[in-house]
């Protein structure tokens, strides 16, 4: 099987990624607990495309019934940081692997999750693998942290900056498994899948206040910014990020980031 290697865009970014990327709002876990109706509680789970384990650590803390959580990422740098930062979390195992061929037995998981990562996958293969490893009525949870750029002059300007330096990119699109950009309509895709049923979609809005330096670190953890640097040069990109922050930071040097966490859930057939 020819599996894309777009995950190599994150080589060398793992420490900054773990430090500057946001987590997920607590409302996600309330939605998950209300949705999950399998015969028993969530005891075995897998976080696919887990990066440095940010969501994995939140998940295992928020769902105390979990006995085993497998944290899988294709990038060995990311997996190494996930293993280091998650060492004190009992039951959390980190593996290097790909979404299109999960290293798990059939019907072994109560929950499969992908947090701001499924856009990178060959999703037909990932959905097939999710249906294979889920127990009957087990839950598939897909999350995407998106900026509410339509409500924020700061974020609107941030997206205009990205569009200038990455001509093929447009706001509202996601990086894809082929190294390009496109829509990622998980809800529609799952509604047409014969082995995954009861599709639901939810949104949680939230706000994060960060220092200008934290937002700068977040920028440099992004594959978009890495591409922009390759095309326009590090000095040009640094100047534009600095200018953007100077225009929008408050008197304390902070900026407000408006987030929308998009949540799509479905179940394996009973």
UniProtKB/TrEMBL annotation:
Keywords: Methyltransferase, Transferase. One of its GO terms (biological process) is methylation. It comes from the Bacteria. Residues 46-141 form the Methyltransferase type domain. Belongs to the methyltransferase superfamily. One of its GO terms (molecular function) is S-adenosylmethionine-dependent methyltransferase activity. PANTHER family: METHYLTRANSF_11 DOMAIN-CONTAINING PROTEIN, METHYLTRANSFERASE TYPE 11 DOMAIN-CONTAINING PROTEIN. InterPro entries: Diverse_substrate_MTase (IPR051052), Methyltransf_11 (IPR013216), SAM-dependent_MTases_sf (IPR029063). This is Class I SAM-dependent methyltransferase. It holds the Pfam family Methyltransf_11.
């Amino acid at each position: 099987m020819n599996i894309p290697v777009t995950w190599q865009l994150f080589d060398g970014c793992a420490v900054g990624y773990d430090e500057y990327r946001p987590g997920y709002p607590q409302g996600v876990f309330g939605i998950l607990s209300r949705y999950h109706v399998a015969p028993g509680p969530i005891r075995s789970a897998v976080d696919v495309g887990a990066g440095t384990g940010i969501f994995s650590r939140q998940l295992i803390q928020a769902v105390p019934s979990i006995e085993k959580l497998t944290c899988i990422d294709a990038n060995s740098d990311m997996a190494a940081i996930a293993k280091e930062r998650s060492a004190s979390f009992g039951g959390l195992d980190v593996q290097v692997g790909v979404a299109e061929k999960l290293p798990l037995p059939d019907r072994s998981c109560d929950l499969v999750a992908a947090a701001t990562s499924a856009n990178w996958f060959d999703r037909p293969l990932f959905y097939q693998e999710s249906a294979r490893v889920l127990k009957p009525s087990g839950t598939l949870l897909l999350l995407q942290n998106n900026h509410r750029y339509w409500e924020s002059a700061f974020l609107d300007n941030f997206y205009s900056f990205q569009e200038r330096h990455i001509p093929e990119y447009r706001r509202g699109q996601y990086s894809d498994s082929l190294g390009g950009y496109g829509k990622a309509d998980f809800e529609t895709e799952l509604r047409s899948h014969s082995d995954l049923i009861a599709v639901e979609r939810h949104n949680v809005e939230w706000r994060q206040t960060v220092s200008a330096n934290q937002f700068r670190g977040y920028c440099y953890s992004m594959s978009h910014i890495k591409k922009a640097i390759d095309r326009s040069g590090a000095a040009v990109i640094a100047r534009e990020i600095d200018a953007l922050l100077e225009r929008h930071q408050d008197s304390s040097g902070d900026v407000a980031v408006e987030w929308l966490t998009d949540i799509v859930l479905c179940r394996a057939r009973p």
